[in-house]
Amino acid sequence: MEPRFQSIKNSRKRHIKKGKEANERRKTKRKSCSSDRRVQRHWRRDAVQGDVAKKKDIERLFAEAKQAFGKIDILVNNAGVYDFKPLEEVTEIEFQREFNTNVLGLILASQEAVKHFDSDGGSVINVSSVASSATPPHSVIYTGTKGAVDAITRVLAKELGPRKIRVNAVNPGGIETEGFRAMGIPGTDFEKQMVASFRTEGWILWVLPALRGIASCEPEATQVCDLRATTSDLAVAMSLRCR
What we know:
Blueprint: H1 3-41, H2 55-69, E1 74-77, H3 92-116, E2 122-127, H4 131-134, H5 140-160, E3 165-170, E4 175-176, H6 178-182, H7 189-201, H8 207-212, E5 215-216, H9 218-228, E6 239-240
Parallel strand pairs: 1-2, 2-3, 3-6, 4-5
Helix pairs in contact: 2-3, 3-5
């Protein structure tokens, strides 16, 4: 190899090595900062088991949360169930199961949360789905519930806004959750069809993971935290859909 080409090759190797070292330093710094913030904020997580479609369970959940934390000013309506089936296999039982959890549960939890918000207001974050706009096949019940969530979000934003209560919806694309894996969806034709449907619609929440297809669960918490920190005297009904 001629000297000038060898020099270019060595220079390229040095740049690649420096880039990798810089990336490792940034990763280490981010982990350290994240750990420091968690310690400073004294984050705490408690679990309370219950059925969100039952008013008494909701009341107990909020009572225990208030006892543990002293004040409630944020609600994240994340409880949800689904089962993807063709129209011919839809049943009354499955309809009631999904609408009770995904829709009635959201309404009951929001109703109870408002009782605990003080004069400073609060924030309600509803986890909807891109399915409400992408409308993938074999999801007639689930997509119906998420369409309802979007509509309810807009209604409550207008209703609760004057009381300084923000109401927002997060509409994520495909997220690999425990239920997603339990149903055996990863790697199937249904997964490919779902991703294609979301991309055709033009909405996928997590930009980098979406390029590969299905996103992981972890980024969702970050986006919700951003919503939670939004400052506004009036509620804004919005669905986050990032290209």
